[in-house]
Design goal:
The protein is α/β, with parallel strands linked by helices and 618 residues long. 45% of the residues lie in helices and 16% in strands. Helix 3 (45-61) crosses helix 7 (186-201) and helix 13 packs antiparallel against helix 14.
Length: 618
């Protein structure tokens, strides 16, 4: 029952869980940018690079010949603008940046084209990033206005909406694409374009372009791209660069090109300012610096008021405007958190009355609902809708005045892009518009069909979940978990025998076992970055029974949480509801299981193993 070779057994189970060969996992710490795919493997990449070079030659003859960059309004779009603007500045292209707005809808729209022409009358070419591949109407409209559109994107879409009027499309989702990895973020595709141009036409500039990888990595992490293949390499390099920027001896670029140099100094200043807002809480030194801090800040403006204006001003305008924008960015980040908390509180107050709690309607800015969707616990994929009317609505048609209603969706076990496409085919009357990736999506539908949509959303998932058994609580974690006990002689009691059958029993009083777990956890840290579709953190299970002897501190965190000492390992809980439930079950003498993750705890220079409790089963 007890595992003798804990390290090897954990590695084998991890390889099975993430569906990556063990030898590939063990090679991750040694991979570098040289292991990334050749950008010219993208379909149309060579064509795009040639077109850009012709534009460069035209600009040398006509200084008024202008390229305008059109990106998305989220962090991926902002970093796409950083990559393209920085790269084009290095190559000497004359270009400007169009600031998108959620109010105009996603992607290059006719409204956006008109605004680009009005703001930049000399525009001849629109270069998109993180949008455009399936913006058929907007691209066609631009062509009618005499503009050329070069598209770089990464979003899927219906073939009928493919922007065939574009001069060129480079995207992993372009129908004829054969690139070996289909999950680059928009900023990463833009980075590949700049690498390809430098390789073919400006090889002496390649070192400067390679430094832009930090923005491509932020884009990959922020857009929840699978943390596999070259994404893992790019985010790892980006994280290392971000950590290096926070050191006094970091050498910033000094090319004399403002659009390039200030990207790096302002990225560093953003981290510094975030730390100054909360000096007691040190910023992490891994990929969580992106996912928990940089990405939320850059996303804050469009979540609160629909446009990423402050983020674009911060990176691209003069110093006086940039400094004002930085303060505003941090203020908006705090305002965003307040709006999120208010909406969540309203949701949980109304939860008992909701027939379909996985598809609620909230009265809040549309940008906030994605944050709510991230936090709702549900066996189903979650789609949170926004409206300006009502609070939380048990839907009736008269309650929502908008003709179309929009949502942000999140999922841990259902491919959202596939789910949305299935509903589009099965229910064309819903007129669902939009799409997304595996774990995140955004779309809209006709309000009058919302009730029918709620039922179809759940019914479709039920069919899929039942056919794959992905609804099982133990399917993914039970085979990759350690079960802590303090007794070698007596089998611990459990409410579900699958836990004992599939987990690895570890005696928390056995020094060698704990040493092995420490070594394994150290190896796991070398596999960072973690992220979407790659979470190697080890599940920890604590079984309660009459044979267990615990030391419990119910007063931890001002009685909002609790700690347990199980042999030589400490477990902590920061969830007040979970604390109260645990104490009640202990007082009643019932058998139950606590679930959490095994992590490192660094305290005054001493590193130890710790269990962070996240769930309970009784």
């Amino acid at each position: 029952m007890f595992e003798n070779n804990i390290i090897q057994e954990c590695k084998l189970r991890l390889a099975k869980k993430v569906n990556i060969p063990l030898e590939t996992l063990e090679a991750l710490p040694y991979q570098s940018e040289k292991d990334c795919h050749n950008p010219f493997l993208y379909h149309n990449m060579n064509h795009l690079v040639n077109l850009l070079h012709k534009i460069k030659q035209k600009q040398e003859q006509d200084p008024n010949y202008l390229i305008v960059l059109d990106t998305d309004y989220d962090t991926d779009g902002i970093k796409s603008a950083c990559v393209l603007s920085g790269g084009l500045a290095v190559f000497g292209f004359k270009h400007e940046i169009y600031i998108p707005s959620m109010a105009n809808g996603y992607g290059l729209s006719p409204i956006a084209v008109d605004e680009i022409i009005q703001t930049h009358p000399n525009v001849k070419v629109i270069l998109t990033a993180d949008n455009g591949a399936f913006a058929k109407e907007g691209v066609s409209y631009a062509a009618q206005k005499g503009l050329e559109v070069f598209v770089t994107d990464h979003h899927p879409g219906n073939k009928e909406q493919l922007a065939t009027a574009a001069k060129v499309i480079v995207s992993p989702m372009e129908p004829e694409n054969t690139y070996p990895w289909q999950h680059n973020a928009g900023g990463c595709v833009a980075y590949k374009v700049m690498l390809a141009y430098a390789t073919k036409y400006a090889s002496d500039k390649l070192p400067l372009i390679q430094r832009l990888i930090v923005f491509a990595g932020i884009a990959n992490m922020a857009d929840m791209m699978p943390m596999r293949d070259e994404n893992h390499i790019i985010v790892k390099k980006a994280t290392n660069d971000l950590v290096a920027m926070r050191k006094e001896n970091y050498i910033y670029p000094q090319t004399g090109l403002p659009y390039y140099d200030r990207l790096f100094t302002r990225l560093a200043r953003l981290m510094e300012a975030k730390q100054e807002r909360n000096p007691k809480k040190k910023l992490p030194l891994n990929e969580e610096l992106i996912s928990w801090h940089l990405s939320p800040i850059l996303n804050a403006p469009r979540r609160v008021h629909d446009t990423p204006l402050e983020a674009f001003i911060y990176f691209f305008e003069e110093d006086n405007l940039s400094n004002q924008a930085l303060t505003r960015l941090l203020d908006l980040n705090e305002e965003k958190s307040k709006l999120r908390d208010e909406a969540l509180a309203a949701y949980y107050e109304a939860l008992p009355q909701l027939t379909y709690p996985e598809t609620p309607i909230l009265s809040c800015p549309h940008g906030i609902v994605g944050l709510i969707a991230n936090q709702l616990e549900s066996p189903y994929a979650v789609a949170v809708f926004s409206t300006q009317h009502g609070t939380i609505i048990q839907f009736e048609p008269q309650d929502v005045l908008e003709e179309r209603i929009s949502c942000s969706a999140r999922s841990q076990n259902i491919h959202l892009g596939t789910l949305i496409q299935a509903l589009q085919q099965e229910h064309p009357e819903f007129q669902i518009e939009g799409g997304g990736h595996e774990g995140a999506a955004g779309f809209s539908l006709l309000t009058k069909y919302f009730k029918e949509f709620q039922k179809a959303w759940r019914d479709t998932q039920n069919r899929w979940l039942q056919s794959t058994d992905e609804h099982s609580l133990f399917k993914e974690s039970a085979h990759y978990s350690v079960i802590f006990t303090t007794d070698d002689l007596n089998a611990p009691q459990t409410n579900d025998e699958r836990i004992l059958a599939n987990g690895i029993l570890v005696n928390a009083n056995n020094p060698q076992s704990m040493k092995d777990l420490m070594e394994y956890q150290t190896w796991l840290e070398s596999l960072r970055p973690y992220g979407q579709d790659f979470n190697p953190l080890l599940e920890a299970v604590i079984l309660t029974s009459s044979t267990q002897s615990w030391e419990i501190n119910p007063s931890f965190w001002q009685e909002k949480g609790f700690t347990l000492q199980i042999g030589s390992i400490r477990a902590v809980c920061f969830d007040t509801d979970l604390r109260n439930q645990t104490l009640e079950l202990l007082e009643q003498g019932k058998t139950f299981e606590l679930f959490g993750q095994l992590v490192f705890n660094n305290f005054y220079g001493r590193t130890s193993l710790q269990i962070q409790i996240t769930n309970i089963l009784s």
